Known about the structure:
Layout: E1 2-13, E2 19-24, E3 34-43, E4 50-53, E5 59-66, E6 71-82, H1 109-112, H2 128-133, H3 142-156, E7 158-159, H4 170-176, E8 178-179, H5 181-194, E9 199-206, E10 214-223, E11 227-232, E12 237-238, E13 243-249, E14 258-263, E15 267-279, E16 299-304, E17 308-312
Parallel strand pairs: 7-8
Antiparallel strand pairs: 1-6, 1-15, 2-5, 2-14, 3-6, 4-5, 9-10, 9-13, 10-11, 11-12, 14-17, 15-16
Helix pairs in contact: 3-5
Amino acid sequence: MILEIQHETSMEYSQPVSEWLCELRMEPVSDATQRCHSFQISVGQPVTFSHYLDGFGNRVHHFNLLKPPTTLRILAASVVETEDTGIGPMASQTTFSADATGHDWLLPLEAIDYLPLRGPARATPLLDPVLAELRPMPRMRVGMWVCQVAESIRGRFEYARDVTDATSPIEHLLTRGKGVCQDFTHLMIAVLRSYGVPARYVSGYIHRENKESQSHAWCEVWLPDVGWTGFDPTNGCPVSGHFVKTAVGRDFTDVPPNKGIYRGAGDERIKVRVATRTLDRLPSLSWHDQLAPLDAPEHSVLRTAPVYSNEEEVQQQ
């Protein structure tokens, strides 16, 4: 599948801003299941972009503006070719130990960092009843158990916006009974790690025909006979060609799509729009000069800021 993705972020300030710094994790990765053919960032002001790879291998673009206007617009556009490999957690034949307390896998270094409970996916007494209910059976296939965990989360909790934010700990979902994709993903990560299964947070997009597309989050689990493989607890399905990955990390705090800081005393209003569409073929090199207007609805976040303020984009399906 060939997908064109447009991710527009608009920021409005109630008072003039003297300095503004931003870093973006919006460029789709190229790996075994997808290939980013082109990526373009457009800002309404002349800027000089720099980029680097962070500690998780994500490509980060950053830039700054002195005395920016009170309204800023960033448009990140990409063309990605995805492949539905059909290899999900269920393809793994790996099993838990005879007493189901763990496993004897030899973990690669890249997986070890995705075992501790931390950040939003942290240890809490509220998690104990969930762990007891989802305890795996002896010699159970791990991939099957991973899918059961995701299905349990999807069935137990209600999808609802404006109940949590992007960095809410799993206690908020466990006590309120509702949340969005990052909450479901953080809880799934916490359960998997509690039983010694490496799990990481994935930031990206999901394309849904004739439905609204938005930035999205899901979980990837490491299994010795499959490697990293993804499952989406929000939609209860393995990752397919409709998913586009932009970044991976231990939790959302490692991979915010848009993170910045500004010097100013006013309020900031952030509006985000995401649109995806399928293409019959790869476009020309100048495709980004003829982008169709976004027809996606806006999602806004209003925040009151002190002189220095960290601003992270809310990521939700």
